[in-house]
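Chain X:
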Amino acid sequence: MKSIPLLALAALLGLTLVQAEESAEALFDAKCAMCHIKTQPTDFNSMVAPPVMGVMMHVKMRYPEKEEAVKFVTDYVLHPDKEKAVCMPQKIRRFGLMPSQQGNVTPEELKTIAEWMYDNYPPQGFRGRGMMGQQTPPPKP
């Protein structure tokens, strides 16, 4: 008899985790996806900012621990600075420095978004594009 309530609790927690993931992705879609696409780009000329998979590849290279990566993203989005940037210099030349998102997203929303980004990007097997379209090796685990 005790196993039924435990199964119900486990099912509820599973649903809650799925809902939280969907909520975080919806938040990313509402606050970030207008500039940072979630897929491998097919038209590099139409991009207005680096895709999230490339951004997170560079964030994880510099900040491999989730807590530090989330802290960096949260700070950087609100207080972007060329000295803090983790992307390649040619990305800043191409896209410019990300504008501060103060007033557009709260620190709490950013934490949720950054945790979701860390958990989902870059996708397994992703290989970023280096200068002149050359493939760069994936980050080391």
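Chain Y:
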Amino acid sequence: MRENRELRAIARSQLQGTWIPAVLVTLIYCVIIGASSFVIVGPLVLGGPLTLGLYGYYMNKARNKSVSLENLFDVFKDVQKDGIKEILPSILLYLLVTIFITLWSLLLIVPGIIKGLSYSMSFFILRDNPKLDAMSAINQSKQMMNGYKWKLFLLCLSFLGWGLLCILTLGIGFLLLIPYILTSFANFYEDLKKQKGK
């Protein structure tokens, strides 16, 4: 696999000239998720499909494919064509990952972080394989991340300084940082697939 610094450099290159659309996609995602939190089940119903769309956007970016704001709502297009069953795996995946990480974090922070890293590829996997069920995506992510959690942890850690700077901008800087992180993660996923022969 490529070094983390290479993954970050590639991500910056892929985002070059397209930062504004990437920021817009991220902003719309955050606004919708934030607004949906005023309804009890809002984040659950919208969180999964929109997260799947967001990951799909940056996965296409990492693959140098054309992307658009509409990618954020791709799952909802599938619902229009094939019915509500197309949206259920992403909703269930969002719910299960949230529950599992929360429960592990109740034990100690470290187990929560480890499990978060184990599940980190789940949405990429589901986006690549829309016919999978949620638990299969989680299990495949765990298998893929076996032996690579530390590498991803170091990649996450490398954004810490940027995160601190974003806090100084009252959070506005995260609209730039999130595309950078997710494009780097998407490239990590692409390398991991090749490494695992999947």
